[in-house]
Amino acid sequence: MAAKDYDLQVERDIDEAPGSVFDAFLAVYDEPLPGWVLHSERDLRVGGVWDITFRPPGAEPFQEHRIFTAIDRPHRLEYSAAISEAGGRTFETAVVFLITDVGEHCQATLMQSGFPDEQTRDEFAAAWPDVLDLIPTRIAE
Known about the structure:
Alpha-D-Glucose-1,6-Bisphosphate, Chain A, domain 4, 7 strands, globular, alpha+beta
């Protein structure tokens, strides 16, 4: 029996230039930190590390140890993420963030793969739209 894939994809049309969207995606995790981010520290280069501690509303904090695997500003950012939850469960995912110029706006597409189960994937799928919705706010700042 083949293993089931638990992948997600989230898209947003954003009325900004690709470079602004790329930078704002990273800036979502900069000061001032959103209430659900306790810590964020990154070294933006291929092979660089991005450590983040999250505390989603109503949930225990968890950590992501991200390693950048591809950076092609302003169109592509990729990283692997080792995720450690409060209960001791760990798993790894891969994230690809693409920004495509579509004339008057650009389309931001985030894909994440490697989830251990459907429930975990769905929890992340529910959170990513909020992150992408913060991009225009960070650009305006």
